[in-house]
Amino acid sequence: MSAPVIEVAGLSVRYRTAKGPALAVDDVGFALSPGERLGLVGESGSGKSTTVLALMRMIKPPGAIDGRILLEGRDVLALSEEELRRARFARMSLVPQGAMSSLNPVLRIRSQFADLFAAHGERADGHRIAALLARVGLPAGVADRHPHELSGGMKQRVCIALAIALTPAVILADEPTSALDVVVQKQVLATLGRVQQEIGAAIVLIGHDMALMAHFVDRIGVMYAGRLVETGPVKAVFRAPRHPYTRMLIGALPSLTERRAFQGIPGVPPSLTDRPPGCPFQTRCPAAEARCRTEAPPARTVGPGHEAACHFAEAA
Ligand SMILES: Nc1ncnc2c1ncn2[C@@H]1O[C@H](COP(=O)(O)OP(=O)(O)O)[C@@H](O)[C@H]1O
Ligand SMILES: [Mg+2]
Asked: To test ligand 1's pocket by mutation, which of 15, 25, 56, 178 has the most ligand atoms within 8 angstroms of CB?
């Protein structure tokens, strides 16, 4: 295995709030090899977006980041503002949640590419932009359009083209297809996967559609209340999920073959400002015992590259 392109350890993000500090990301760690695909799943509010924003150092006050992020061996949290500016897009890029609405509405697509290249001291000729658009399946004429003249799927493809324009080593894609209809979702995800492979970048893909995710990623990470409660090879996690939360998420999978109604998971996650001691999942866990109310479960290894933070993970 080659050296990891990104290594994250002990990553935490705290927001200062009126009710005290809210721990939105709690001790998250993972590493990715070049070209590897990690999927991050979990309910809304579990800390997925905050995690990728922290990797980009895009958490704004009153948020604060702790821990270690090594991008190609460089300590991201120690970079100067200028080094950080140069690393963004060029070494690690983000397709943010709701990316298509982040395109500048008053600029033609061409100008948005030109601005990106200019910010990195590179020239943007028409051929280069046309080639990038072609890579994501868009005709060259898209360069002359404004965002409002494009469909959702086309805008999302533009965002992907911007994210790969400077051939980063890591792509972070936050629910890149969630606003699109099912058929377009699959096409856009296939395009993202193809260009990611072509440039050999590792990718962190956030999504809440477990089925779509299962087909795309190599490894999956399940987040709950800011923690990575289970990580492992996607096949192993689906075949033998070891955390009760993962089992419930997979059980809640709307299956195309079974056509049964989507069942949410009963209950709500704990407050991030007032966390109970013990396991964050205890209040919703069908298997919780006395120990879970007092003792926070550390990550336990349950198989090759497979970890789960549950006291009973080995027995599951
Ligand atoms: N600026 C902020 N101030 C306080 N809390 C925040 C802020 N931004 C996000 N959060 C909280 O952090 C938690 C994680 O949010 P987020 O990372 O967006 O979750 P996800 O992407 O998994 O839906 C949520 O509970 C959210 O309310
Ligand atoms: Mg999010």
From this structure: 15
